[in-house]
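# nightly structure sweep
# worker-07 picked up a monomer target from the shared queue
# config: single-sequence mode, recycle default, output format = structure tokens
# input follows
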Amino acid sequence: MPPTESVEFEMDKVDWKKDLASHFENVRVIELCQAETVAQFDQFCEFIAEPAFEALTDELGQYRIRSEHVKHKGRSIRFSVCFPGLKDEQFHYRISLPKNAVELRLKLQIKARRTPKAEYQTTDEDFMPGLFPFKVLRMDKDEVVADVVRHFTTYCYAALTTPD
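# output follows
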């Protein structure tokens, strides 16, 4: 029989202080990215979405349709369209920054109703699917206007042609 060898297990030295320091550095980087993303979202609202909504408000005014936009700093911006000739809101287009986001991967919520007394129907989706987050700040306001118009007209045609 071969002699028994004593087997020694060498435990890797655990540097828990280094692991803890690394953790807190990672948390700091995540928080920094989140703060930068909020700032970028505010830039998107100020320089792209708000001018888009203002242009659309001017155009809808020619059809005697009221609209407005409301911004919640660092969180969302919403464009609302009223029923023709009324003050009651018919359609909402809301772009939002998800909580704890570390990039500009935005969300879109559409709320609409067929009559002023009807309940809102809501859909949630990605804002401009296929748009890379780093390209959001390079968008033209007309791209946003075109997306609002596409969602609004799609909704209107569906509401006009859907049986009760």
